[in-house]
Amino acid sequence: xxxxxxxxxxxxxxxxxxxxxxxxxxxxxxxxxxxxxxxxxxxxxxxxxxxxxxxxxxxxxxxxxxxxxxxxxxxxxxxxxxxxxxxxxxxxxxxxxxxxxxxxxxxxxxxxxxxxxxxxxxxxxxxxxxxxxxxxxxxxxxxxxxxxxxxxxxxxxxxxxxxxxxxxxxxxxxxxxxxxxxxxxxxxxxxxxxxxxxxxxxxxxxxxxxxxxxxxxxxxxxxxxxxxxxxxxxxxxxxxxxxxxxxxxxxxxxxxxxxxxxxxxxxxxxxxxxxxxxxxxxxxxxxxxxxxxxxxxxxxxxxxxxxxxxxxxxxxxxxxxxxxxxxxxxxxxxxxxxxxxxxxxxxxxxxxxxxxxxxxxxxxxxxxxxxxxxxxxxxxxxxxxxxxxxxxxxxxxxxxxxxxxxxxxxxxxxxxxxxxxxxxxxxxxxxxxxxxxxxxxxxxxxxxxxxxxxxxxxxxxxxxxxxxxxxxxxxxxxxxxxxxxxxxxxx
Amino acid sequence: xxxxxxxxxxxxxxxxxxxxxxxxxxxxxxxxxxxxxxxxxxxxxxxxxxxxxxxxxxxxxxxxxxxxxxxxxxxxxxxxxxxxxxxxxxxxxxxxxxxxxxxxxxxxxxxxxxxxxxxxxxxxxxxxxxxxxxxxxxxxxxxxxxxxxxxxxxxxxxxxxxxxxxxxxxxxxxxxxxxxxxxxxxxxxxxxxxxxxxxxxxxxxxxxxxxxxxxxxxxxxxxxxxxxxxxxxxxxxxxxxxxxxxxxxxxxxxxxxxxxxxxxxxxxxxxxxxxxxxxxxxxxxxxxxxxxxxxxxxxxxxxxxxxxxxxxxxxxxxxxxxxxxxxxxxxxxxxxxxxxxxxxxxxxxxxxxxxxxxxxxxxxxxxxxxxxxxxxxxxxxxxxxxxxxxxxxxxxxxxxxxxxxxxxxxxxxxxxxxxxxxxxxxxxxxxxxxxxxxxxxxxxxxxxxxxxxxxxxxxxxxxxxxxxxxxx
Lengths: 491, 472
Hints:
The structure holds two protein chains of two kinds.
Chain A: H1 2-16, H2 19-38, H3 47-53, H4 56-64, H5 74-103, H6 111-116, E1 119-124, H7 128-141, E2 147-151, E3 154-161, H8 168-189, E4 191-198, E5 202-208, E6 213-229, E7 235-246, E8 249-257, E9 262-264, E10 267-289, E11 295-301, E12 306-309, E13 312-320, E14 322-326, E15 329-334, E16 341-348, E17 354-360, E18 365-367, E19 375-377, E20 385-397, H9 401-420, E21 424-432, E22 438-446, H10 450-471
Antiparallel strand pairs in A: 1-22, 2-3, 3-21, 4-5, 4-20, 5-6, 6-7, 7-8, 9-10, 10-11, 10-19, 10-20, 12-13, 13-16, 14-15, 16-17, 17-18, 21-22
Helix pairs in contact in A: 2-5, 5-8, 7-10, 8-9
Chain B: H1 2-43, H2 50-74, H3 77-105, H4 113-135, H5 141-157, H6 172-201, H7 206-228, E1 235-238, E2 240-241, E3 246-247, E4 249-251, E5 254-255, E6 257-260, H8 263-287, H9 291-318, E7 321-324, E8 331-334, H10 340-369, H11 373-405, H12 414-435, H13 440-464
Antiparallel strand pairs in B: 1-6, 2-3, 4-5, 7-8
Helix pairs in contact in B: 1-2, 2-3, 2-5, 2-10, 3-4, 4-5, 4-6, 5-10, 6-11, 6-13, 7-8, 7-10, 8-9, 9-10, 11-12, 11-13, 12-13
């Protein structure tokens, strides 16, 4: 049974190191992803909507196969894992060959190698050394690096450009793995959640997307938040003035807007939403009337006493969205904005006596405080009542994102090299041709973009030809059948 | 003497035959321009407006399309010269339309499906000229220009007013992301057109083109009938509020549909006429009898006529009319603008059938005009070599932007997922080509499939699948 033990890992290796397996896996990923977009997905869709869209039986089956949350299901992650495994194994299988090719380029000029080259030209020469020297000068003028190679007593030249482009494909695949690695790191160590802050509020507990809460090692304070609108009433900008508070000290502050988050200790705070809190009043604009009938406007903020005159202060202490009155007392009925009630406290400076006054704008009534020297008027319009703004902050911790961005940059570079850098090679050797006459044999090869290389190759041949001509003591007449193409700087 | 005279007399009719289309196209372009000018003069509006520029672009693209197709049919090289001139003028007008919109809104036109189509059409026209001048693929305009025309017509029906950017879109990354997307999509469109050219040059059977064309047209009409056919032969279309230029909604996410009586039957007939050539093709395959193909080609002709009738009937009856709705009492207005994709599908069907007819009649001439199959194959690969890095950059820019806006670089949103699927499909193409040596047919099928996925990602996802990526 030793056979089966050693056979299984080999078999697995063989299966996954196969490009066909990789393609099959890719097709499976495509199908699974497509299903994940056609079936409504759990985290994004409410349970109600799902129940509306599918019958209970269908939903049960969808849930059983995790089709309602494809992208977080174990089988999808396994699939991605297998794709990574396949990339790694295929690359390992192919890499040594590529590396050998890269590290030890083939510079020899055997006749069978020469015969297989796609581009080759023979130029007649008198003397091997002079010919090679001329070719070397021409190549250098055209910017090709030149190596002298001696093989089987045949001195030859070897020149190449962009050899590293043959490794680009490994860079691209490695970068994909880097991106996956970033995703895995974020899946394990990352988290994201939500934090809603009133103006002036400080908070350090976020509600996690995955459920539950998390306490941050520092707190976030919201100084102000707001919305700006376009002329047509659609929102133009949401902003929040935030500060990071650590150990009671403010260590950083920033005004964030959508698209420009606050980053602190690897945590990002995004402006995600903005709304008004029905339950909290930020400020109230009313007026008070003195005994002599003089009316003075009064701007109140929650729990902040304001001096009326030298003798008393008033503070807004209570706010009830929907109130009802029984026996002269005010009670809360519900949280819907319907019958507002504002509770004021008037404090006499001298006696420290506190009197409660209720404003009920819907009825136009004021309860309590009838004996005071100060009478209060109800707010007259909706603009007088400013509800508290709440800023909704998306919080995310993605320690793996740097791997992802590194992967993205690497991939861009890799693709650029893979598609647009051509590995070009040239060989030049002095050999006797079929008739036994000495010729300078020039051969070339490119790994892609063959027609462009043909042009370059022709340029090189022309360069060498003119160099040979100018070097020879007795210039030969220009060949009629091939119009002379001279290169700038060569002649 | 006599023979020479006859030869001389034989020539002119052929030459005028060659000029006829030029004159026809030229006259219709001039006529349409004058009509438009009169319209502008009558209404007293400004000549310099985005819609006027776009109208000029539409006319010239259509003229160029006709000339490219005329070149395909007759092989007159002059047509191509005039066609590329028309394309260039269309491109200039298109550029002016983009520039005017940019100037008015103070930002690049990348923020709605209308604006993206505007840029997409621009990229397609530019790439057509590049393919023609640089790669020598002259006939490519006969596929890309109709595509541009369909897109511009679609744009006429989409809400086009300049809307201020919602907060999430106010980012430089919007421009990077969308520019890359439009360029890569246009390169994909080009590779698809080149792959089709390859199939023609590679002696892909005309009958197979027949099958694919009628399958596509059948799919369009069967799809419309399946989703829109109402009881008693009505056709269901979306209600349209002319005042706000938007669909009428009954509730959240519930659009109001109205029923156009009797129009449904016409679509059923058109669907049957579209299926008929497909069935005849299969009959020919099974019985191994070429006679069926001849009948199938006649059926295609009938199908085209019916498609034209259906489009005309649809336009006449749906344009600015009021019909009852099954969901609500009373009559509700509808407009062509409410059904851009029905109309787009129908026009695409007509163009596809016409292209098939061109192929059927002039196959050998076409083959003489195209570069060799080998060149086309290589150029297809080259365009994908351009499209793929652009696609990668588009996804990367989108991810980076999402990370700054939504707090996550990847949230498996349908648009994101489909962009990744597109990327994987083209990655598959590259792998098969480079390591498995896939050349020719199989690579061409792959390129065509890839563009199908692109179209779904671009338009299908926006209209069919809900998600965060709601702007376009």
